[in-house]
Specification:
It is a single chain. The protein is of the alpha+beta class. Helices cover 24% and strands 26% of the residues. It has two domains: 42 residues, no CATH class; 218 residues, no CATH class. It is globular and about 60 Å long. The N terminus and C terminus are likely disordered.
């Protein structure tokens, strides 16, 4: 079962890479109607603003699973956890290849090879449509006996309407791209670029746990207040990221989302005890 799943994921990833190269070589097409949207890979774009997203849903069989947690970004215990049951189970499987999300993005030329760029997106559970919230899932399970817990997990997604990316900036082919506000950490960018499984929750141990992308702390996989610069020089890439201290970032996230998850969440330590996710 595991080998078959990994094989299927590999084939899908290869197909996605192939299609991505083809799309890059062709100018993006804007949808002209509902049927055009269903039949082709056109973009939902109006006045330079593109609506985009993905819904990842399926079913799974786990020999040592745990019930679905609609707050948790992965939603299911794809890797055995402390709360995993000793019995097998069939269950729905959300976000196996990637976190379901919806967002907007755009590129607006302002002169020469320079453009204003922006992106805003939020991850959610494809069955309940709840915004992904790792700290929220941990808080909900506080005080629950271990053998009765659902598949909760810590994460840098904390239930905000911008729990994925939320940045704006300028981009130039000559001078690079400078963006501000909520962005992926450089280590998370590296995971997304070089993990053969694309940081999949279900098929990649690196994607399942957020220690790698957060440099030891899953809540640092994304920074809400940050300044990021990227420059491509031939085959080389030169990135730089200036985030605020993690404790300030975690405090802002907690206040803006209107939720409180106890001392650990407010101070940004995130010490809730489960394998963290991106």
């Amino acid at each position: 079962m595991t080998k078959l799943g990994i094989f299927v994921a590999t084939i899908l990833a290869a197909a996605g890479t192939c299609c991505g190269v083809s799309a890059a070589n062709a100018a993006p097409k804007t949808c002209t109607g509902l049927w055009d949207f269903i039949e082709t890979d056109c973009q939902l774009t109006w006045y330079g603003i593109t609506l985009y997203g993905a819904i990842d849903a399926g079913f799974s069989y786990q020999t040592h699973g745990a019930p679905l947690d609609t707050r948790s970004p992965p939603g299911s215990a794809y890797i055995v956890q402390r709360y995993s049951r000793s019995s097998s189970r069939w269950d729905v499987a959300p976000n196996g290849l990637q976190n379901s999300f919806i967002g907007i993005k755009g590129t607006e030329p302002i002169g020469g090879d320079t453009s204003v760029v922006f992106a805003l997106d939020a991850g959610f559970d494809p069955y309940s449509f709840k915004l992904s919230s790792g700290p929220g899932s941990a808080h909900h399970m506080a005080g629950t006996p271990q053998d009765q817990q659902t598949s909760w997990a810590d994460s840098s997604r904390a239930g905000q309407w911008y729990n994925g990316n939320g940045y704006v900036g300028v981009s130039s082919l000559s001078y690079g791209t400078l963006t501000v506000f909520r962005q992926n950490s450089l280590t998370y960018d590296g995971v997304l670029e070089y993990d053969p499984m694309g940081a999949s929750y279900a098929f990649s141990p690196i994607g399942w746990q957020g220690i790698t992308c957060g440099g030891g702390n899953t809540e640092n996989c994304r920074h809400t207040t940050s300044l990021k610069y990227r420059l491509n020089i031939g085959q080389a890439r030169v990135p730089s990221l200036l985030p605020t201290p993690p404790t300030i970032d975690a405090r802002l996230v907690g206040e803006i989302s209107g939720r409180k998850w106890g001392v650990n969440g407010v101070e940004g330590s995130g010490g809730c005890g489960s394998s963290p996710k991106a």
